[in-house]
Structures are given as C-alpha cells and as structure tokens.
Amino acid sequence: MRHTKVFIPTLREDPADAEIVSHRLMMRAGLIRKVSAGIYTYLPIGRRVLSKIEKIVREEMDNAGALEVLLPALQPAELWQETDRWHQYGKELMRLQDRHDRDFCLGPTHEEVITDLVRGEIRSYRQLPVNLYQIQTKFRDEIRPRFGLMRGREFIMKDAYSFDENAEGAKESYHRMYDAYHRIFKRFGLHFRAVEADTGLIGGSSSHEFMVLANTGEEGVASCPGCNYAANVERAEAVLGTGSDQSEEECPALKRMETPDMKSVEAVSGFLNVSVAQLVKTLLFLADGRPVAVLVRGDHQVNEIKLKRFLKVTELILADADTVTKITGGPSGFSGPIGLKDVEIIGDCFVETMSDVVIGANEKDTHYLHASPERDFKVNHYEDIRDVVAGDPCPRCGQPIGIDRGIEVGHVFMLGTKYSEAMKATFLDQNGKKRFFEMGCYGIGVSRIMGAAIEQNHDDKGIIWPMPIAPFAIHVIPVQEKSDRVMMTAELIYGSLLQAGVETLLEDRKERVGVKFNDADLLGIPYQVIIGEKNLHESLVEIKNRRTGEKKKIEVEKVINYLIELLEDSPDESDFDF
RNA sequence: CGGGGCGUAGCGCAGUUCGGUAGCGCACACCGUUCGGGACGGUGGGGUCGGAGGUUCAAAUCCUCUCGCCCCGACCA
User: Fold this and answer.
1) Nucleotides on strand B lying under 7 Å from protein C-beta
2) What's the predicted TM-score (pTM) here?
3) For A18-219+404-455, CATH number?
C-alpha cells in the first residue's frame, strides 16, 4: 500500500498518559487511539496486525479440529444466574438493562452462552467431542484498566470450549489445545513459555498459562533450565534443596538485643551485621478475620495465594500497625513468634531448617539473637507459603531455577463438569444414560498479544515486528521524491513485490528523509528498502534490517529475488542472517 | 475503593502561588530556500482554559460541587 493512502498518524512526542513502552509506541506509530480508559480504537495499521494474529490463530484452531462460531457479546442475565456467576463475577461484569428493565451483561467470557448452545443441540455421545471457538470482543469492568492494551475494559479474545463425554476425552482435547497453542505462539515469532498456573475464578482441575517473556511483564515465571518445569510464581513449588540445612553446630543461648528504630529487615541486618538470610520475619495477617502469624526467611516473600489455599480462607489481609500491636503486644516492625498467644503460627518450610536466627521480640526497639525453632518458639504448621526465588531448586530435577517476567497471553483450563452441572447440560451415553459434558476452555488475548509483542520487540527508535505479525513485510523508502529515477525505481520495486504477493508499504510522502527514516523505524516493518540517488548511480539499493540495523547494498535487478529469498528464509525473529 | 498527580489549540507544555481579559514548541494552510536521519525564513487559521454554580468592577487564576484521565495499592483472563 501507499503511505499517503493509508491513515498512519504518527506522533513525534510521547502521549502524556501512556506509561509503558508498548502503549507509547502503539500511540506514536498510529496503531491505536484511546477513546476512554481501557477502550481503544484500532487504526488501519493496528487492525492489520490484529488480522495477522487472528489469521494464525484461526489456522491453528481449524487444524486442531475446532470450529469457528460467533457468540453474542450481549447476554441475558438468566444464563449467568444459572451458574450463579451473575453474583460471583461481581463488579467486573458490565451490566445493563434493556427498555423493559430486563438485565443483561456484556460478556466477559462465554462459558454460559456456549454451554446453553451445546445443551440445546447436542444429545448423543455420537456427536462428541466438539470444540467451538470464536474471536470476539470481551468486556470486563476492570478495577483499574491500565497499560494500554494490556488491561482493557474492552478487548479482543479468542476463546474456545471443548465438550467431551468423559474425563479422558477432555484430557485429550486439553492436550490438543495445549499443543495448538504452542504452535500458535511459535508462529507469532515470540519468545514464550507455557507454565503451570492457578485456576482462579474460572475453576477446574488443571491449567496452563502461556507467557510472552518480557522484562516489563506483570507475572513472574519460574522455569528450570535443566528440565521443562515452568510455573507461574503464584504457584511454583518452593522446595528445600540438599544443603539447605544449617550445620549441626550448637546454637548459642537466646539473647535479647537493643535495636533502636530498626524496623525493616534491611535495617536490622545492617545494624547487627548479619545477613538478611539469617533473619526470620514475622508477618501478621487477618485470615477471614482470624489473626495468623506467618514466618519466612528475611529475604523471602510470603505468597498470599499459597497461604490462602493452605488456610482455606477467602479473605487474607496484612494486619495494619494497630492490629499488630493488638495481636502481639508490641509495635509493628518488631514482631516475632516468641510469646505470641492465641495466634496460629505458620512457618515456611525453609524456616524449619534454620537455627540461630534473628527475630523480633514483640517489644519496641528489641530483637532476639540466636533463636531456634522448636527450642525457643513453637510453630503450628510448616508449609510452602513463600514465593520461589531465582536459584531455588527445581521441584522436578533439583537444578537451580530462574525467574523471568512474563505477560499472560493465553490460558487453557480443564473445567470438568462445573458448568455443565450448574446448567444441567447433558447428553446420552452408550447406555442411554444422561451424563454431564466434560468441558475445557481455552483463551488467547488477541489484542494483548499486539502489546506483548511490542514489549518484547522494540528499541529506542520504535517497534521491531516479528515478521509473522508485522503489518507489512517490506517498507520501500525512496529518499529523494523529486528524482524521477529514484521514484521510478521505487515504483518498480514496489510493483514487483506486490506482484510477488509480498506485503509492501511504499513511502510516497513528500517528507524530508529524516522524517521518513524515523517514521519507518517507529513503524518497525522488518525490512526497509532504501532507494537513493547516490547508490542508484551504481545501480544499487540498500536493504536495512530493522532489528539489527544492518544495511546491505544490492543491485537493483537482483533486489526482488533477493528479498523474496530473504522472506522465505526468515520466518521469525530468531533468524535474521543475511 | 484508599493514596498521589493531572485536565489550557490536534499533540507536548507554560501561565494558577500573588485575579487585570491567553501564550510557547510541534502539527496544519500558503510562499520561498533547503533536502541520505525529525530543516530555515515569512504569512495565516485554530481556544466555551473539562463542566456547573458562586465570590468580584474583573476569574484559566479564588471558593463549592461535579465529570474525566494517569500512576501506586488491594483485585484480576
């Protein structure tokens, strides 16, 4: 396409309200515009990228035997009342009423609608399994939409739902989707990991998240370099490695120590000149209103999801300063397990292996030295309740694991019969017996992928698209638009590429080169063909690799074949050799 | 919902402390020069200062209410 015929309103300056890099670059490169918080318009280039993403998703879903449908975004309350999610979903559900005051919502997800469809149409095990998917706009009234496309109130998602006659079949469907997701993300040309994940509100027995790795990601991803273990840090098991035990040396007697104003772990460790790993911090929580003391090593973090699961509570709040004093008798910052009364004490497993530690004394400006679990204080339960950290042993093979940041772009769940039971969705099995469908659901955040791809692939000049989802493959840039020779060559190359089926953008604006080059780098089309008078005198044009910045001069007659070969050879970002 | 910040031209901002009738840069239109990394000169157009109410001779500026946006937190595919 010709630049002057496509609407690409680039911005010279960063928009004031865009914080993260993908948001800034999508605004600047003219991919999106904001309409309201968490609500965006996709401009032509943005829409092209979405189409690329959708095309790959469709091809792989179709290959995996899923069938595309389109479910309504506007959904009646009755369906949601059947599963009780009309209430459970809370304020995140966008609700509205029609002119007769009947309740509706804008779908944040489609389990209810799809289950309603299937229960009405599928009667026999002979019709199973079935997997239906759609690419559609979803609505979630987020507490706080943020990060541009990363957390919108309206966003585009591919969701698929599988229905099987039994658990084994459901497992098979799940694995088919899991494999399809691997192919999809590989084809996008993105670095990603599939990780074990928490099932959250959707429920079900098993689930994996697909994370695009980027250091701006919101999620922590623990993964093992030695085996294929990978998990969301929310869920990753923290295990004791060999050698984590302290020496058998006798621990000296407990000793009180003045620690004036030393409230934080770092302050105490600095003041006493001991490592933070020699401290045990005590955090007070209110678990459904009940006070609980939690012990973890000074440099470890309490994992509230694990703790919640262990305590089997729905609400877990870190106690405020007043509550701490009420529970422990001492000021916040000096809490410890010694002398705590009427409080359940949960210790992280690692604490059990420690001895001779520093702990708070539940008294202003005081800590204890040389404390040892069991000898000096009692712990009711030892449990894995902390976040894993880099270097922790892999729970499968024991090698030290690494922690990366990731952006969740896909999630697959085994749902079991949660929805089919709630909605009485049954079929007849071989014996003519009614059974509930075994379900699975599978989501891909289509619009979020666009943002995640940019988070992972950009530099200070702009976007660097992986070829498979780039809006165009080649950007043809004539330098001097007044030169007939330059313009004719540009038109020739542009025309030939189009004829060869290569998606090409021709820079045909009357702008200075600086503007053209800077906008080209901002747009991030993988290869730029730069046509200038100087090189043309020697019948050469220049090809610039946007990712590496590498430039190569090629003879005009050979450039089309050269580019076509280049595109065939480099389907993704990991393969950019000339 | 709690904490912090911001709404002035399409975009980025100054002006608000201390009231005096709105400005800068970019962008846009036209003319000329320039032209392989965001040019220069000239001319020109564009504003209910987020909205409502109030105080005042006079309000972008002070007061009250309200709407919107951004960031942190709790929460979440």
Assistant:
1) 1-2, 11-13, 25-27, 34-39, 68-77
2) 0.90
3) 3.30.930.10
